[in-house]
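Exercise 7b. Backbone tokens:
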């Protein structure tokens, strides 16, 4: 065993040779162990991970997963994944051997998650539970794909028990206009909400906007980035998906409001954010203020995107056109907002009737 006593400090250390992914022999040393046993255990754990042997704990495999996946995703994405894994997954599975976790263990974890409370509104939302299970499944899938795990136990266990579908919340045009008048006393907030509602941008996309993103002659705004504050730092990333890179036509009144607002900003440069005093917290605060003053029901800031889609549907636009504007796949719009297309089923039935009538009419003409 390559474990040694450091006579100078009275601690133990382990020095291990191993082969990296290129086949080159390398050496790593870990110092500062209080006992020889701790040094030996670290060396054994290190060799297991380097060999890709799944006779390791879930916690040890997570270290491999982090090493493999963290460089491949956006910082914001990893922070979200990490928060869920460290608070909802590792506390339950960390010390269990990953190749011994069965579907029954997954079901027990699901039941424990269903019994937890979030401290605000009772039980966790179904969407949050689904996100937790998705992160757990990603880890098992990684183990199956690259490290030889035989099966992902979540596939056998199935999903969380489905509660009744939560009704999608949105504002009608009248509700939004009532709300917007209540926040019109603060120009920055007012213009930001105008962009969210009338153009359907995500909050991060709106916060990333600069003067150079607007073409006031063509009445267009370009969406090609997103803003977030991560660990106290302002971070600009690419949008959520490839489809989110898009050009959006603005209503003329929104273009005029934005142009006037930018003109009021002292010394703003083309590449500087125009909503630098806004934040996600400020959006929520202004939403609370506007709803309280106007009496309009409280929805999430993100629900303004749903409100925009609802407005477009009521105006008669189809799913493909709406999806392009929102940066979605058209099939997602069809599935998620199908209940908002009340006339589509009637149109389909009428078209089918017309097709049948056309067939018989042609037959009568031939006779």
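Sequence design result:
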């Amino acid at each position: 065993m390559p474990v040694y006593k450091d006579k100078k400090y009275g601690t133990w250390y382990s020095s291990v040779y191993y082969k990296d992914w290129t086949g080159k022999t390398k050496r790593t040393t870990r110092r500062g162990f209080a006992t020889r046993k701790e040094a030996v255990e670290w060396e054994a754990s290190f060799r297991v991970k380097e060999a890709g042997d799944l006779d390791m704990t879930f916690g040890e495999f997570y270290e491999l997963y982090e090493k493999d996946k963290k460089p491949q995703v956006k910082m914001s994405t990893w922070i979200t994944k990490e928060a869920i894994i460290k608070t909802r997954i590792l506390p339950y599975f960390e010390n269990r051997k990953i190749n011994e976790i069965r579907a029954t263990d997954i079901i027990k974890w699901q039941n424990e998650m269903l019994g937890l409370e979030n401290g605000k509104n009772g039980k966790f939302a179904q969407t949050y539970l689904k996100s937790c299970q998705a992160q757990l499944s990603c880890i098992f899938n990684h183990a199956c794909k690259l490290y030889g795990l035989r099966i992902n136990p979540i596939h056998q266990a199935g999903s969380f028990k489905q509660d009744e579908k939560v009704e999608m919340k949105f504002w009608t045009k009248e509700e939004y206009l009532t709300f917007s008048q209540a926040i019109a006393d603060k120009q920055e907030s007012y213009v930001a909400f105008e962009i969210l509602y009338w153009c359907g941008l995500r909050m991060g996309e709106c916060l990333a906007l600069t003067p150079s993103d607007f073409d006031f002659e063509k009445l267009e705004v370009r969406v090609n980035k997103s803003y977030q504050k991560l660990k106290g730092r302002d971070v600009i990333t690419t949008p959520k998906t490839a489809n989110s890179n898009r050009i959006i036509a603005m209503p003329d009144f929104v273009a005029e409001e934005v142009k006037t607002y930018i003109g009021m900003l002292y010394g703003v440069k083309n590449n500087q954010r125009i909503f630098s005093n806004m934040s996600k917290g400020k959006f929520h605060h202004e939403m609370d203020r506007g709803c309280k003053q106007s009496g309009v029901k409280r929805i999430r800031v993100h629900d303004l995107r749903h409100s925009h889609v609802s407005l477009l549907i009521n105006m008669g636009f189809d799913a493909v056109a709406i999806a392009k504007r929102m940066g979605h796949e058209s099939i997602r719009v069809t599935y998620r907002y199908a209940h908002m297309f009340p006339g589509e089923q009637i149109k389909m039935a009428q078209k089918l009737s017309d097709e049948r009538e056309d067939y018989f009419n042609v037959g009568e003409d031939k006779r």
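Instructor comment: The chain has a mean pLDDT of 84. The first strand starts at residue 3 and ends at 6.
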